[in-house]
Amino acid sequence: MGDLAASFARDGFVVLEGAIAPESLAPVRAAAARLVNEFDLDANRTVFRTDDRDSGRDEAFLQSATGVHCFLEQDALNEAGKLVVEKRRAINKIGHAMHDLVPEFTSFCRLPLFEETLHSIGMSEALLWQTMYIFKQPKIGGEVRWHQDASYLITRPATVIGFWIAMEDSTLENGCLWMQPGAHRSPLREIYEVDWSSRTGTLRTLDETPWPDFESARPLEVSAGSVVLFNDHMPHYSSHNSSPISREALTIHVAERSSEWCPGNWLQRGERAPFTMASGAQGRHESQPDLG
Question: What are the Cα distances from residue 135, in Å, to 33, 34, 71, 251?
Answer without folding.
Answer: 10, 14, 10, 11
